[in-house]
Structure formats: C-alpha cells, structure tokens
Amino acid sequence: QEERDAVLAKIEVSQVHLELLKRTNVLNDAFYISHDGVIGTINNFRLGRLPNVQVEWDEINAAWGQAALLLHTMAQYFPKFQYRIKIHPMGSYPRVTDINNNTYELFGPVNLFWSTRFDKAMTWFLTCLQEFSEFAISLDKENNVPSDKSLKLPYKIDGDKVGSYTIFLSFNKLENWTKALKYMLCNLKWVLYWFIGNTSFAPPSASLYLAQSPNKKG
Fold first, then answer.
1. pLDDT score, position 54
2. Which domains does the chain have, with CATH numbers?
3. Three-state SS at 47
4. Could you give the residue ranges of the DSSP H alpha helices within the chain?
5. Which of 4, 89, 157, 197 has the fewest CB atoms within 10 Å, counting from its CB?
6. 217: region left, alpha or beta (phi > 0 left; psi from -120 to 50 alpha)
7. Mean pLDDT of 74-96
8. What is the distance between the alpha carbons of residues 25 and 61, in angstroms, rounded to a whole number?
9. Which residues contact 186 (CB under 8 A, 6 or more apart)?
C-alpha cells in the first residue's frame, strides 16, 4: 500500500509538472524571439535589413508571418478583447484589416521610397499590439496585480512609432526602420511572456504547425 501510494504521489507530481510545462512552453517554443546583431528575429527569421546586410524579402515576409500568427493567436484567445484590427496570418503573406475594413498587405517586396500600403499594414499591426497590451494591463488591474508586476512594454508605441523610431519604410533609413522592427518584436516578446503567465493555452494538435505552413499568395 505504501509503495502504491508513493507511485501515485509521483504520478500526481509528474502530471502537475506536465500541465505546467504545457501551459508555459507551448507558445514560447513555437515563437522564439531574439536578435541577430541589430536585427530582430522570430524563429530565426530576420525582420529588417541594413545597407550592408541585404536580408531577402522572403525571409522578412516569413518573419512578419510568424509575428502575425503570434499576435493573432493571443488576441483571439480572449473573448473579452475587442479585436478591432484583424490580423490575418497567411503564412508568408499576412494581411491586416483596419477598423474601416480596409485590408493591407504585410509583406513585400515593396518600393523602398513609396510603400504606403505596407506602411499602413505595419502601423495597424503596431496599433493592434498596443490595444492588446492595454487589454492585458486592464486584466492585471482586475486581478489586483501590483503595478510593479503588471505588464509594461519596454518601448512606447505611439501611432507609427515604437520607441522613438517610425515603423514606416517609405523615406526612412534602413537602420531606423530595422530598429523600430526590433523594438516591436521586443514588445511582442513581453506580451508573449505575459500571455504565458496568465493563460493555460494549449492549441489543438498540429494547429500551430498548419497555421505556419506557407500559403500561396492571392
């Protein structure tokens, strides 16, 4: 009986650990946000480019696709969140629909000097990230989380700016655009950490893999 109780106790502890791992690691493993020098990365795809580091558009598009999938996954998890700006994670061809139902392409290639639709897509993505972070902070207040432990984005989002850098590509220096993208990914990572700590998210089998599969353009 003692041996049986001991085994059951170990099983119970193992199940608790398993649930904890499921809750904390699924999205963290699925979306690894880091950097390669001054260029931010998500799942090892670089988001941005420099005059001396010519990142291909296929890689930039893949990075945006991963970022879009992550934000969309978190935003739709909460029924209470007013998901006004819709993120459409369509593989390497993500799109963003604004509050007036205008849809913009969040992928390139685009004209580096006149990329209005791409600029708008990135700006609306930023706005959605900002709105979701404000929602997260409001939940923290509802749950009486101390202000010093509540979510706080490392870089302020203000319209098309994150930190003090515009996310516009048009008439912008590649270095500054890339820095804005890196700051955006850093904010996204902070929101991901908050999400992991406040949900028991577990996707249906293979759903993240399928959602990340490249879609054809169109």
1. 93
2. 31-198 (1.10.418.40)
3. strand
4. 2-30, 57-75, 116-142, 174-198, 207-212
5. 4
6. beta
7. 94
8. 25
9. 33, 40, 154, 155
Q: Terminus-to-terminus CA distance in the chain, angstroms?
A: 64
Question: For residue 169, which amino acid is it?
Answer: L
- Percent share of the chain, pLDDT over 70: 84
Residue 11: count of CB within 10 angstroms of its CB: 10
Please list, in sequence order, all residues whose beta carbon lies within 8 angstroms of the beta carbon of residue 122, skipping any fewer than 6 positions away. 106, 160, 167, 168, 169
CA separation for the pair 9, 15 (Å, rounded): 10
Judge contact between 21 and 52, C-beta under 8 A. no
Phi, psi angles (nearest 5°) of residue 162:
-130, 125
C-alpha span between 44 and 57 (Å, rounded): 14
* Mean pLDDT, range 123-151, rounded to an integer: 95
DSSP 127-181: HHHHHHHHHHHHHHHHTT--TTTS---SS-EETTEETTEE---TT--HHHHHHHH
What single letter denotes the amino acid at residue 36?
A: D
